Amino acid sequence: xxxxxxxxxxxxxxxxxxxxxxxxxxxxxxxxxxxxxxxxxxxxxxxxxxxxxxxxxxxxxxxxxxxxxxxxxxxxxxxxxxxxxxxxxxxxxxxxxxxxxxxxxxxxxxxxxxxxxxxxxxxxxxxxxxxxxxxxxxxxxxxxxxxxxxxxxxxxxxxxxxxxxxxxxxxxxxxxxxxxxxxxxxxxxxxxxxxxxxxxxxxxxxxxxxxxxxxxxxxxxxxxxxxxxxxxxxxxxxxxxxxxxxxxxxxxxxxxxxxxxxxxxxxxxxxxxxxxxxxxxxxxxxxxxxxxxxxxxxxxxx
Length: 302
What we know:
Blueprint: H1 3-7, E1 24-28, E2 36-41, H2 56-61, E3 65-68, H3 78-88, H4 96-99, H5 102-116, H6 123-129, H7 134-149, H8 160-170, E4 174-177, H9 181-189, H10 193-205, H11 207-223, H12 226-233, H13 245-269, E5 272-277, H14 287-293, E6 297-300
Parallel strand pairs: 2-5, 3-4, 3-5
Antiparallel strand pairs: 1-2, 1-6
Helix pairs in contact: 3-9, 7-10, 11-12
């Protein structure tokens, strides 16, 4: 299944976790005077869910810093809003209508009509979507599809990652990011245009399956049902919708390695709660194993 698309929902989304794992882990040892913590998150989950995560309150009260993948508040600055808009938009000299073939446009319009009731012949929708890069449009459409089917369930102004940073800031904690917004924008919207078109047409041709996958992941995360989450993420379509090894390396493993190099310095400054997408935690190249290899003790918080 197209993990690149699912990851890009609100700048990333949840992957499978280790077998029998919980969501929150304690990091200790290697000279740390007080433990730090890392939380595997799902980026389309409401902030209020943090109250249901075992040990979450103690982790927040016992740390002095909250570090996410990026500093969420920085995304709303006028400068960064302009940069984000530019990153998500096609050059002025082109448009979706120029980029896609006639057949692709026909399929896209049929999908839009079925999904949201109007297509790009509507001037309002054309103004809103017509200049978006295919990767950005794909993300917007999956979110819209989910919200239309689950009206009132998702509070987009208070999602889990943002919520924990706000709570941390209000309690006087330093809020930081493991990477920059510029890096994430390039990662999500800097793919070669033919590959972005492939991803968009994958959604157009497999919309129901994509929506079902998103629903199953979010439901499994809320239930903390690790087995169900793993089954969803193991699903393959055996076509261009599946993420390539190179894409998975750039999206997950290279970032894990960079974060594992940065986290020791952050933890040495002060006990820290790290909040990152769950897909970065598991496996031999996962963040938990990299921290163990660096000499830290990693324990599940129950």
